[in-house]
Amino acid sequence: MEQSSVVFEYTFTAKFCIEHIVSFLRNADVEPRPIIEELLTQFESRVGQFPLGSQICPELVKIGCAKYREFNSAGGYRVLYSVEEHCITAHAILSQRQDIKQLLFKRLIQP
């Protein structure tokens, strides 16, 4: 699949995750823009060329969900995504140390 024929979509949850990362970085006195830009550039570049090249997320497989793949960035973040023909949908973006179950629970209880 050529990258030029691929469309990337970011869900509300993925955007929420980015806002959370930005807030965390600002609280640590780190400029978030270059980190987020590098993360998204790496993700779109690598996954755009090889959409099925990342492993299926092992944490989600344990709870019976094998639909989502996990891209790991050089900067210590991971993007959970799915592939549907020419559309790649980013569902969540987390620190590699962050617990997926905790994120899912937070998203369920927030208004």
TrEMBL record:
Superkingdom of origin: Bacteria
Record-given protein name: Plasmid stabilization protein
Species whose genome carries this gene: Enterobacter cancerogenus
InterPro entries hit by this protein: RelE/ParE_toxin_dom_sf
